[in-house]
Amino acid sequence: MNAPNVKKKVRAVLFDFNGTMMYDSAIHEAVWLEKLRKAGIDPGPKSEYSKHLFGCDNATILGYYFGITDPSEIEREAYLKEAEYRRRCAADTDVYRLVDGCAEFLDALKAAGYPMTIATGSDRYNVEFYFSSPNLNLGKWFDFDNVVYDNGTFPGKPAPDGYIRAAARLGADPSECIVFEDSYSGVASARAAGAAYVVALGKGVDAAKFEAVGGVDAAVEDFLNYKSFPGLMLD
Which of 3, 183, 196, 233 is the right S-S partner for 8, CB 3.0 to 4.6 Å? Predict the structure, then answer.
């Protein structure tokens, strides 16, 4: 006999950032593809390279495509890549903003008393870049010290470590959290961490592409209909 379908209670909210709260994936993609082309590396079709570029930390990408494993070389190459990303991002006002409905959703979560944080594959330089921006105003909703970012002390997505750490910083278990993600590796990470719910975001997002890593509970293009997200009680 199958167990009854019990609705899971959400106590905390975890966000990926890049491609989820801000639609900047095209800039990351362009910078990486340019770097790969200059090195004479064929990344293959987007359906393949998206699994290895989107949501992954720089060390994983540099190791997978370039065979770089030396920490000092990883640090140097990652810094150059992210500096170019930040330059392009700052110049693109259509990209350098929160996704539609995101600010309203964050306001609603704050009013309802839900603790929330970000778990991102970005490094500290990028997180400081985001928090310093009046376009994003992240300090209104998030404590910088609770943000989990790539600091080289734990494996990146699709490993579950980032979301496990993020939940712990909010005093919650991943099984009590809803996660918002956009990438294949990110959804895999959230599912491996044991998240109660996983919502996929993105332009033209297709829930079917995540089935191999445990699937998603909803797939949406933005945050405008946030009252329909599973497990949350919002006015």
Answer: 196
> Do 190 and 172 meet the contact criterion of CB atoms below 8 Å apart?
no
* pLDDT score for 152: 86
Structure tokens at 120: 């991102």
| The pLDDT value given to residue 57 | 85
Q: From the CA atom positions of the chain, what is the Rg in Å?
A: 17
- Closest Cα partner for 17 from 83, 104, 96? 96
Identify which of 5, 6, 17 has the alpha carbon closest to the alpha carbon of residue 179: 17
Instruction: List the strands of the sheet with 177-181, edge to edge.
Output: 116-118, 12-15, 177-181, 197-201, 218-220
Query: What tokens appear for 94 in the block?
Result: 């259509």
Contacts for 186-190: CB closer than 8 Å, 24+ residues apart: 186/16, 186/20, 186/54, 186/55, 186/157, 186/158, 187/213, 187/214, 187/216, 188/157, 188/158, 188/213, 188/214, 189/55, 189/157, 189/158, 189/159, 189/160, 189/162, 189/163, 190/14, 190/160, 190/163
Kind plus residue range of the DSSP H or E element containing 50: helix 46-53
Q: Which tens digit of pLDDT belongs to each residue from 201-234?
A: 988 899 999 999 999 999 999 999 999 999 999 9
Q: At what angle do helices 46-53 and 58-66 cross, to 10 degrees?
A: 130
Beta bridge partners of 220: 201
